[in-house]
Amino acid sequence: MRLSAAVFLLACTLPSLALADAKAELARAFDKLLDAPSFRASMSDAGSGEKYVDMEFQAPDRYRIINAQGGPTMIVSGGQAQMDVGGRMMSVPVPVNAIVNAYRNEDAMRKQRESMVVEALPDATLDGQAAKVYRFTTQHPKPATSTAWVGDGDTLLQMEVDGGAAGRGKVVRVRYRDIGSADIRIP
Questions:
Q1: How far is Cα of residue 44 from the mean position of the Cα atoms in its chain?
Q2: Alpha-carbon distance 160 to 136, whole Å?
Q3: How many Å from the N-terminal Cα to the C-terminal Cα in the chain?
Q4: Which of 13, 87, 155, 165 is most deeply buried (CB count within 10 A of its CB)?
């Protein structure tokens, strides 16, 4: 009788331990990206493959955002935004701090993690690279479901984020590369 009770207790405990481990593993990948001195990312529609933007980041606050449809390139630095229009940089009145803080605000990230529920999915291969795959839901700043692919060394390789009602059912894919690259220089 005692053995069956112990087996039952273990069976009930294992799923919660697996969820805690998955959450910790995904949190390490997010921390590594947040701590990175630089990276490149491409954003596209996960369904159609249509590319929206290519982005480069250089710590602490520099971004180069390249419009994939041929629009102007935007440089964000120190809360200011400039757009390259015909080889000439022009200041742009964009709420840069609100945009940047949405992605690199530690308080917002903490709140997101508090509400995050993570599920480990079967491992996969992404461009020939082995990856652990996680589906996670958050309630902050609004309810969302996302999937993340994490490679060796807790390296975030890709995320797919459900656009919800505002995204009209689209899923945005963000591919990360060159994390920590010394050759990313943003003026």
A1: 13
A2: 10
A3: 70
A4: 155
Q: What is the pLDDT of residues 88-129, one digit of tens each?
A: 989 988 776 666 665 566 677 777 777 889 999 999 999 999
Dist CA 184 CA 38 (whole Å) = 7
Whole-angstrom Cα Rg for the chain: 19
Residue at token pair 């807790």: 154
- What letters, b where the CB count within 10 A reaches 16 and e where it falls short, cover 50-73? ebbbbbbbbeebbbbbbeeeeeee
Mean pLDDT value across the chain: 82
Q: Rounded distance, CA 15 to CA 127, Å?
A: 30
Reading the block at residue 53, the tokens are 């933007």
pTM: 0.81
